[in-house]
Write a structure and sequence with these properties.
Layout (H helix, E strand, L loop, with lengths): L34 E6 L5 E6 L5 E5 L3 E5 L5 E7 L8 E2 L10 E6 L3 H4 L1 E8 L6 E9 L6 E12 L20 E3 L5 E4 L19 E4 L19 E3 L5 E6 L6 E5 L7 E4 L37 H7 L25 E6 L12 E5 L2 E3 L2 E3 L2 E7 L6 E6 L9 E6 L5 E5 L3 E6 L3
Bound molecules: calcium ion (CA).
């Protein structure tokens, strides 16, 4: 692995403990060749971006709402959440709490004709509250959005606090929204700290949905009998990354692990990702609120592999057919958030590799593991054959969203309020 020791974010000696990726030559651009620009700063937890061909960039802020940055750099607020100021309109049912708020955004592949955009947010319109995928029409002059239609209104939301270690409301909503090359719409969801949801055939948390732009199930989805037909895969923990292989069309998910084992999984239609954090499994015992998602915890003296043996991210003992991950972050949980394939000759050997944004964890106030990993797959897309940490030409951050812009640059949003642009040599 190549590492620029002059990079402030990589300068912690402890970091080497957390990045035990294979030591391989770096084939892509490095600090000396990757141009960096801050596209926007001073934002409030930017969560996701979506581009038009001319570089127009829609983006969400978790507790504020939806805005658009025009190619000339002008920013126009489009839709505010409850209490947000400075927007032409607000949707007062949209709110933020804990990890929840306004999250993923995607533009319609036929935007030029439809003017449609899709946004995923937490809503209090119903009780219990839910996460919703909404469709809007963007005004011709980009001054606002209208014609809201909630095409998915039943993704579970965690209402109440609980007494396990990360017990706040609003946990584990998933949140990424993407179109694939064939025009299907995908939404990733999370488990809400709820043991029933991951393997439930009807609760739409812990799932990856493949739908159309009206929210109807894709006709080729093949979940087990009795499952909601919108289900492409189930048994996930909290998926915040989904990417589509540019050549094979394989769908790849990135999700957060429970104090061990972030996972990247190549999805199988109808597949079970094997997360089932229920009580009373052998060796697990009772867990707070019946949710064994953090049991045993990392303070009980076990290393990450011992913890994984009690509460596996992929429980192949109970579910022998479960989809196996192709990468588990060497057993660490560091917040694997977003994934996108790099495309373009400027990326060199990384043309066709997948970039993964990792938010990192903090020990004693020191951020560890904040990085972008570049993963190269074998031709069959069954294995990750190379992982390289991207040498950053700027300070790292909590990499929440990665999107490939129409110019071939990699755009990266960090929780610290910035959207970066990383451009390979042309
Ligand atoms: Ca899994």
């Amino acid at each position: 692995m190549f590492r620029d020791l002059g990079n402030a974010a990589a300068g912690f000696a402890a970091l080497t403990l957390f990045t035990a990726a294979p030591v391989l030559a770096q084939g892509g651009p490095n600090t000396t060749s990757l141009a960096h620009e801050v596209v926007l700063e001073g934002l409030d937890a930017p969560w996701d971006m979506a581009f038009l061909e001319d570089g127009t960039m829609f983006y969400t802020e978790k507790c504020l709402g939806l805005s658009v940055r025009m190619p000339d750099g002008t920013v126009t607020p489009l839709l505010g959440m409850s209490g947000a100021e400075g927007y032409p309109a607000t949707a007062d049912d949209l709110f933020c709490e804990g990890q929840a708020g306004m999250m993923g955004v995607a533009v319609d592949p036929d935007f030029a004709e439809t003017r449609r955009i899709y946004v995923y947010s937490t809503s209090n319109m119903s009780d219990p509250h839910t996460n919703r995928l909404m469709r809007f029409t963007v005004a011709e002059d980009f001054s606002g959005v209208s014609e809201r239609t909630d095409i998915v209104d039943d993704v579970p939301y965690k209402m109440a606090a609980s007494d396990h270690p990360f017990g706040g409301p609003g946990a584990h909503n998933g949140g990424r929204v993407r179109f694939d090359a064939e025009g299907a719409l995908w939404l990733t969801t999370g488990d809400n700290h709820n043991a029933e949801i991951p393997q439930s055939p009807t609760l739409m948390g812990s799932k990856i949905l493949r739908i159309d732009t009206d929210g109807n199930a894709h006709p080729d989805n093949a979940p087990p009998e009795g499952f909601d037909p919108r289900t492409f895969t189930y048994g996930h923990r909290n998926v915040q990354g989904i990417a589509f292989h540019p050549e094979t069309g394989d769908v790849i998910a990135a999700e957060h692990g429970p104090w061990h084992s972030d996972e990247i999984t190549v999805l199988e239609n109808g597949g079970n990702a094997g997360w089932d954090p229920r009580d009373n499994m052998a060796g697990r015992g009772d867990c707070p609120d019946g949710y064994c998602g953090y049991s045993p915890n990392q303070e009980e003296g076990m290393d990450r592999y011992e913890r994984a043996s009690f509460m596996p991210m992929t429980d192949t003992e109970t579910y022998p057919e479960a989809m196996r991950p192709v990468w588990d972050n060497n057993g660490w949980s560091q917040g694997t958030s977003s994934a996108v394939f790099l495309e373009g000759a400027g990326w060199g050997d990384w043309d066709g590799a997948m970039a993964v944004g990792i938010m990192g964890i903090g020990f004693g106030g020191t951020p560890i593991g904040q990085r972008i990993d570049i993963m190269e797959f074998n031709d069959d897309v069954t294995e990750v054959v190379d992982v390289t940490e991207l040498t950053l030409p700027m300070e790292a951050g909590r990499f929440r969203s990665l999107v490939l812009g129409p110019d071939g640059s990699l755009y990266a949003a960090v929780d610290e309020g910035m959207i970066h642009k990383l451009t390979p040599p042309q």
